[in-house]
Design brief:
Strand content: under 5%
Helix content: 55-70%
Number of domains: 1
Structural class: mainly alpha
Shape: globular
CATH class: Mainly Alpha
Radius of gyration: 17 Å
Distance between the termini: 54 Å
Order of helices and strands: HHHHHHHHHH
Largest sheet: none
Length: 223
C-alpha cells in the first residue's frame, strides 16, 4: 500500500513510522481529511502519542492503544453532523485495519473494544465499561486532548463547525462554545481511568479555568 504523505504527523511522534501505523493512518486520512471539527488526523496522532505514553506507565499494550487511537473517530464523520455511536462503525474499523495489513484477530478485537467504549461517560449517564486497560487508556488519552491549550482550540473549532455562538452569558439550555467547558471539559479529570492521566489532566484543566475566567472578563470589557 502507498502511504499518503500527509498521513504522518508533522512533528516527532515516537513509533509513528513503524508498521502498520503509517498504513492505518493513510486509510484514516481518506476518512478524516475534510474534518473541521477538531477530530482530524492530527488529533488522532496526539491521542496515539498520549495513549502510548500512558500505556507504558499503566502496563497496557501500546500497540493496541496506538491502533485504536488512529481509528477511534471514524464514527465522527460517517454521517455528517449526525451523531453515530462508535459501536455502529466497528465493521468499518475492522475493514480499515485489515486493509492496512492488520490481520491478528485478537488485536483487531481488542482495538474494536477500545473504539466501542471510548465515547461513554458517567457524567452524562452513558454506560461506561472499558473492560480492558487498553480501552481505559484510550479513553484517557482522548479526554486529555480535549483539555489544555489544544483543547481550547478544538472546542472552538467544533463550535464553529456546528455554528454555535461563542457564549450565552444568560445561560439557559441552548448550547454555546464556552458552555461546553462546564458541560463536559471540567468534568473530564473525574472521568480519568488512570492515575497517569489524572495527573496530566489537572494541569490542563487549570489552564482551562484560567482561560474561561479571562474570556468572561474580556467579553464584559473588564480587560
Amino acid at each position: 500500500m502507498t502511504t499518503v504523505p500527509d498521513a504522518l504527523p508533522d512533528w516527532d511522534v515516537p513509533g509513528s513510522t513503524e508498521e502498520p501505523y503509517p498504513a492505518v493512518a493513510a486509510e484514516m486520512q481518506r476518512t478524516l481529511a475534510d474534518d473541521s471539527s477538531g477530530h482530524d488526523l492530527a488529533h488522532a496522532w496526539r491521542v496515539f502519542s498520549l495513549g502510548r505514553s500512558i500505556a507504558n506507565e499503566e502496563d497496557a499494550d501500546p500497540h493496541v492503544v496506538g491502533l485504536a487511537a488512529l481509528v477511534h473517530d471514524h464514527h465522527r464523520v460517517v454521517n455528517g453532523h449526525e451523531f453515530v455511536h462508535p459501536e455502529a462503525t466497528l465493521e468499518d474499523v475492522e475493514a480499515i485495519l485489515t486493509e492496512a495489513g492488520v490481520t491478528n484477530s485478537a488485536t483487531i478485537d481488542a482495538v474494536k473494544h477500545c473504539v466501542a467504549v471510548h465515547d461513554d461517560f458517567d457524567y452524562r449517564g452513558d454506560p461506561r465499561s472499558p473492560d480492558t486497560v487498553e480501552a481505559a487508556v484510550l479513553q484517557d488519552a482522548d479526554n486529555l486532548d480535549a483539555l489544555g491549550a489544544v483543547g481550547v482550540g478544538r472546542c472552538f473549532a467544533f463550535g464553529g463547525d456546528r455554528g454555535l455562538p461563542l457564549w450565552r452569558p444568560g445561560g439557559g439550555d441552548d448550547p454555546c462554545v464556552l458552555g461546553h467547558f462546564d458541560e463536559k471539559l471540567f468534568k473530564l479529570q473525574d472521568e480519568c481511568n488512570t492515575e497517569t492521566a489524572r495527573a496530566m489532566a489537572a494541569d490542563r484543566i487549570a489552564f482551562l479555568e484560567e482561560f474561561a475566567e479571562r474570556f468572561r472578563r474580556e467579553w464584559r470589557g473588564e480587560l
